[in-house]
Design a protein that fits this description.
Length: 248
């Protein structure tokens, strides 16, 4: 919806008292700490910069914690309530942020949070902190133009980057083989709820099929193994879209 330029911005004193301001500060903290951590990671010195990695994820925990609190202000020990909590994507990202915070630093794990934080922080600042003008308009146009591509990037990072890293670390005994299994359930939820994740999976399948199926350079047993693995992944993913049968 178009912004009414005559609408006054909220007073700063009012803003800082709102949970939404803490949400914004969490995103800003995530972005700043990630930017400082980046050189440590790129120079293979992640342990020395681990405090900044932890700071980034603490920012994520604050932001997603605010959303979780606003979405579920009252906790109920009921099966239906717990189910509604765990299928909420912000809760999933909150739990995942806690998992990354308690595990070995991985730059790839921060990338989805960084992308979300960038768009959220910019939009909040534009709407609540910036005066109407050229800069605010540029930010609005940039975020609207790049949003879908950024969300698709997140999907590819989560599917290839994060899952690939977890599998590789598990196979080389640098991490638990349980991690990729747990993360697979997260991706299954993302496939169910995110159009961009479904688009990324579909594009990856098309590319892999084109390179593997019917390729005379690949042994038939390897092609068969690929098709079996592809079928298993599809069945696992589709299991999420089956709705539970109503009790009689």
């Amino acid at each position: 919806m178009p912004t009414n330029s005559s609408t006054p911005k909220p007073q700063l004193q009012t803003l800082v008292k709102s949970p939404q301001f803490a949400w914004w500060l969490g995103h800003v903290t995530l972005l700043v700490c990630s930017a400082i951590y980046l050189p440590y990671s790129l120079t293979f010195n992640s342990k020395s910069g681990s405090i900044w990695y932890s700071g980034a994820l603490l920012g994520a925990l604050v932001s997603y914690g605010v959303v979780a609190y606003k979405s579920f202000p009252e906790i109920k020990l009921e099966a239906q309530f717990l189910q509604s909590v765990f299928v909420e994507e912000n809760i999933q990202y909150l739990l995942l942020a806690f998992f990354w915070w308690r595990s070995t630093p991985r730059l790839v794990a921060l990338i989805p949070y960084m992308v979300y934080a960038l768009f959220n922080a910019l939009n909040y600042a534009r709407i609540n902190l910036m005066p109407e003008g050229a800069l605010a308009l540029k930010i609005k146009n940039w975020t609207e133009l790049n949003h879908d591509q950024a969300m698709l990037l997140v999907a590819y990072v989560e599917i290839i980057g994060v899952m690939g890293t977890l599998v590789l670390q598990g196979l080389t005994f640098q991490g638990s083989l349980l991690w990729p299994i747990v993360y697979a359930f997260f991706l299954r939820f993302r496939y169910f709820f995110s159009l961009h994740t479904r688009a990324a999976f579909a594009a990856l399948r098309t590319r892999l099929d084109a390179k593997v199926v019917g390729n005379p350079k690949i042994p038939p047993k390897a092609i068969m193994a690929y098709e079996v693995a592809r079928g298993a992944v599809i069945r696992f993913g589709m299991a999420a879209v089956k709705q539970p049968t109503a009790s009689q």
